[in-house]
Amino acid sequence: MRKCDKLAEAKANGFVRYLTGRPCNKGHVCERLVSDRSCVECNRLKAQHKRDSMTVVEKYEHGLKYRHLKTNWLLTDKARISRQQTSQKYYTNNQEKLAIYRKEYNLKTNNFHSKQWKQLHPEARSAWTAKRRAAKLQRTPLWLTLTHHKQIDRFYWEAAEVSKLVGEVYHVDHIVPLQGKTVSGLHVPWNLQILPAKENLSKGNNHG
Predict the structure, then answer these.
(1) Which of 50, 144, 186, 194 is the most exposed place for a label (fewest CB within 10 A)?
(2) Could you tell me which of 115, 88, 85 has the C-alpha nearest to residue 102?
């Protein structure tokens, strides 16, 4: 990376540091900050001395403050967009690597949502499908009207249409799962929502 030896040139090029080649008051020949012309090595030693002089309690409180600031920043739109761009860039540049990893992970963890698991365990997949179908029938109230059933069918139709338009698989999800660990929901229109397939599968039988 190109370095500037003059402050004005560094400012003009938008650099954070510049190197004059001359020692500072403490004799360090290193880069200086454009913001206040301070020596980078002096700043490092000053920060190190401050950390060494802090008590355990002070270090803990300082860490809490840093984590609080970091957490607040992660909640901003700028941070969210930055994470999305970073993830998309990594996915684009490592698709083959990720495909191999997913295949190995699915086989290792017996992920019944994966194609490999379905091919290797057709009988278990059939049993799971039958159990799911039975649960849906048992969780469908008899008092549902024809309008309610049409509304349910509408959800599945819209999920299929969204999948075609977006080019990504969408599922009809039960907000309160039919087979929840603590509470089970009903197969009714107001308990349905459309979610991306990945989000729905990661949710599992958890509620909330």
Answers:
(1) 50
(2) 115
Q: Tokens representing 200?
A: 């729905």
Strand partners, 85: none
Can you tell me the distance from the alpha carbon of 170 to that of 155, in angstroms, rounded to the nearest whole number?
Answer: 11
Tokens of 158: 């819209």
- The per-residue DSSP string of 117-148 comes to HHHH-HHHHHHHHHHHHHHHHHTS-TT--HHH
DSSP structure class, residue 200: H
Distance CA 130, CA 203 (A): 20
Asked whether 171 and 144 are in contact (CB, 8 A), the reply is no
Which residue ranges make up each domain of the chain?
1-53, 141-208
Read off the pLDDT of residues 130-149 as tens digits, 9 standing for 90 and up. Answer: 556 656 667 778 888 888 88
> Do 6 and 15 touch, CB atoms closer than 8 A?
no
HSE toward the beta carbon, residue 60, CA cutoff 13 A:
3
pLDDT in tens, 89-144: 888 888 888 888 877 776 676 665 666 666 666 666 655 665 566 566 677 788 88
Q: In terms of Cα–Cα distance, which of 134, 148, 119, 117 is closest to 178?
A: 134
Closest CA to 168 of 142, 195, 207: 195
- What is the C-alpha R_g of the chain? 29
